[in-house]
């Protein structure tokens, strides 16, 4: 399940539900407050008084005293025994999911307290332990036991986790936040100032293509075709301007460094969509551009409203595209990852979130999950997007609109619909339902048994349970089953701060080094910088 593409996978998705630009602005503001040259206290620990309590799973609290205490739970939904064992028998959301639990001594003094949140996923079985805190470096890549990073426009490398560093060069541009550096035998690629740069030796950089804008999520990837001896590089664009068209670009790179770049996909603007609702290729912006390392297929995700949320794929390096699915928040994603047998994606939404996957065997046989239909009849209870109609009221809504069917209607060449949730075509599998917050970026890691799993960061967007940023582990076992566990939760920097800031609290996984340490970038936490952590994974029964 190793991703053979050696590159950093992370982005900067800090936004409102429909405004990632605000996310970025908030992130830039908070990171600017951190002095990159300041010393950090490595002995600081993560606050363990915030605990996620899995429904139906008892959890033993610990005490810092041997004196007798009396336990109290300030929420009837969370019980606590005289021995300090927590239990929640039913799932709740919002304030009903939160409990203050206190340990009181014989004099009535509170000597310890815990903030408990009831959750519907496995917690407290595996964990991440803090090794060290590092300054807020702009990390670009991890490759062959070397971390590449920037301070301003100066490019550095370190092979000892920042104990020492060596300056490589001063870049002729400022690298774009959220984009990795792609490293390959065909050269190295960076994005900055709306341009794509290439270097053979990491020292001398030249512009190879100019974009109209750059993105801020997982929109930079590559694939090496060993049959043609060519490297295909893909990049996407991002903005929140309703008048902007957003594009995906492709570069075909030869081993001698010669390159050919062009636009391969254009999404119509929101303004254009409002004038013509029949435009299927419209999107507010692009969320992700990534490559399946097992096949070379190109995958693209967009958002944000239901009609603009879609996942597309290309089997021919961007020459043609097909829509796998669209029409709901279930197709609004920031991360798509791949294993030998499955294709996975998460949800960038504060609606009840799911993690989906599709089996490769079924994807080959039946690719499209939301097909366009031009024969037969509609089905009551199914959601349809009207593609074409020649009679004014053949369908209850106009072209480009979504409706839930209440009767059977004839479908033909002049009256076409797209089936958005018809079980006849839907071969998705739900891996997990995490009623929490928006799910963000991921990286591949290995546990202490050298087994592969995905680490995924999540933010409390939506405030469904609490304002905790969380990290999840997602492990596909040899029999195809999947384990999903919470590994860590961290509270927002200031719980009294505006919700629009606290909703972006998270740890973004960056990479795992050769020692097994996993690096994370902070978002709106009490300490701003890089967390270096160790994973201890325990499989569930």
Describe this structure in words.
The structure is a single chain. The chain is mainly beta and 541 residues long. It has three domains: 20-40 and 128-369 and 427-536, Methylamine Dehydrogenase, Chain H (7 Propeller); 56-119, Sandwich (Immunoglobulin-like); 370-426, no CATH class. Helices cover 5% and strands 42% of the residues. The protein contains four helices and 39 strands. A hairpin with a 7-residue loop joins β26 (342-345) and β27 (353-359). It is globular.
Short key terms for the protein model shown above:
541 residues; mainly beta; Methylamine Dehydrogenase, Chain H; Immunoglobulin-like; 3 domains; four-stranded mixed beta sheet; four-stranded antiparallel beta sheet; globular; disordered N terminus
Using the CA coordinates, give the radius of gyration. 24 Å
**Number of strand segments:** 39
User: How would the global form be characterised?
Assistant: globular
**Portion in helices:** under 10%
- Low-pLDDT stretches are 1-44
Q: What is the domain tally?
A: 3
Structural class: mainly beta
β-strand amount: 35-45%
Ends distance: 22 Å
Which CATH top level class of the largest domain fits? Mainly Beta
């Amino acid at each position: 399940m190793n991703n053979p593409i050696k590159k950093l996978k992370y982005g900067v998705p800090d936004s409102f539900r429909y405004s990632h630009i605000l996310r970025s602005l908030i992130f830039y503001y908070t990171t600017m407050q951190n002095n990159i040259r300041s010393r950090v206290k490595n002995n600081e620990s993560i606050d363990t008084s915030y605990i996620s309590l899995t429904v139906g799973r008892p959890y033993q609290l610990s005490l810092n005293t041997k004196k007798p205490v009396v336990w109290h739970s300030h929420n009837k939904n969370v019980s606590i025994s005289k021995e300090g064992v927590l239990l929640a028998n039913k799932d709740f959301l919002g304030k009903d999911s939160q409990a203050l639990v206190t340990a009181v001594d014989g004099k009535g003094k509170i000597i310890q307290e815990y903030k408990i949140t009831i959750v519907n996923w496995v917690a407290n079985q595996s964990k991440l332990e803090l090794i060290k805190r590092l300054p807020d470096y702009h990390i670009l890549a991890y490759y062959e036991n070397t971390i590449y990073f920037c301070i301003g426009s100066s490019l550095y490398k370190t092979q000892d986790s920042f104990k020492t560093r060596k300056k490589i060069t001063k870049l002729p541009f400022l690298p774009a936040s959220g984009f990795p550096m792609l490293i390959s035998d065909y050269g190295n690629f960076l994005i900055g100032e709306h341009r794509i740069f290439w270097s053979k030796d990491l020292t001398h950089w030249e512009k190879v293509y100019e974009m109209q804008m750059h993105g801020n999520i997982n929109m930079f990837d590559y694939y090496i075709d060993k049959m043609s001896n060519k490297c295909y590089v893909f990049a996407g664009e991002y903005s929140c301007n309703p008048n902007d068209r957003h594009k995906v670009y492709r570069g075909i790179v030869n081993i001698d460094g010669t390159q050919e770049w062009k636009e391969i996909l254009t999404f119509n603007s929101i303004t254009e969509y409002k004038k013509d609702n029949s435009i299927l290729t419209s999107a507010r912006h692009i969320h992700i551009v990534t490559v399946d390392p097992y096949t070379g297929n190109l995958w693209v995700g967009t958002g944000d409203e239901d009609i603009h949320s879609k996942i597309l794929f290309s089997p021919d390096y961007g020459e043609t595209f097909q829509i796998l699915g669209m029409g709901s928040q279930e197709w609004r994603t920031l991360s798509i990852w791949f294993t030998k047998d499955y294709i996975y994606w998460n949800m960038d939404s504060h609606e009840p979130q799911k993690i989906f996957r599709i089996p490769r065997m079924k994807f080959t046989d039946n690719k499209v999950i939301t097909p366009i239909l031009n024969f037969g009849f509609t089905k009551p209870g199914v959601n349809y997007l009207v593609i074409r109609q020649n009679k004014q009221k053949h369908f209850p809504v106009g072209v480009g609109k979504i409706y839930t069917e209440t009767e059977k209607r004839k479908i033909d060449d002049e009256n076409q619909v797209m089936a958005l949730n018809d079980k006849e075509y839907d071969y998705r599998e739900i891996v997990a339902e995490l009623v929490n917050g928006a799910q963000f970026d991921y990286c591949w890691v290995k546990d202490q048994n050298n087994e592969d799993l995905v680490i995924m960061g999540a933010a409390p967007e939506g405030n469904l349970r609490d304002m905790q940023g969380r990290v999840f582990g997602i492990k596909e076992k040899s029999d195809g089953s999947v384990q999903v566990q919470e590994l860590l939760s961290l509270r927002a920097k200031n719980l009294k701060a505006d919700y629009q800031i606290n909703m972006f609290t998270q740890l973004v996984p960056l990479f795992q080094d050769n020692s097994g340490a996993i690096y994370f970038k902070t978002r709106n936490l009490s300490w701003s910088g890089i967390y270096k952590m160790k994973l201890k994974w325990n499989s569930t029964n």
